[in-house]
Amino acid sequence: RGAEATARKLRGSGLDPNDLPSLQTHEDANTWLERKGRAVATRKVPHNGARAAIQPVEAWLWAEGERVTMSMIDELRAEVERLKGKTGNGAPLRLG
């Protein structure tokens, strides 16, 4: 419902939702923000309409940050297990 409401607001505000890419990358998020900023600056979109359109970008950025964090944690866990396996006897691995 939220996406439909945002699309209706954008259609009536002078910015076609089809002008915005799907949010798949950080570049897409930057495109959304840049186009909304220009639309507000040129008064094609009211400030409250821009705010509604920015909320999906913020949600995507938060979720992407969580995904990247979890990926890094998984990689670090795998590296710790790999390093543990190198000692073979449970003795601490000497670095350097």
Tell me the Rg in angstroms. Answer: 22 Å
Compute the separation of the termini in Å: 57 Å
Estimate the strand proportion: under 5%
Question: Could you tell me the mean pLDDT?
Answer: 82
Descriptive overview:
The chain has 96 residues and is an all-alpha fold. The protein contains three helices and no strands. Helix 1 crosses helix 3 (47-87) and helix 2 packs antiparallel against helix 3. It is rod-shaped and about 70 Å long. The N and C termini lie far apart (57 Å).
Short note summarizing the structure:
The chain has 96 residues and is an all-alpha fold. The chain has helices at 2-11, 26-41, 47-87.
Task: Please describe the topology of this protein.
Blueprint: H1 2-11, H2 26-41, H3 47-87
Helix pairs in contact: 1-3, 2-3
Task: Write a concise keyword list for the protein shown above.
70% helix, mainly alpha, 96 residues, rod-shaped
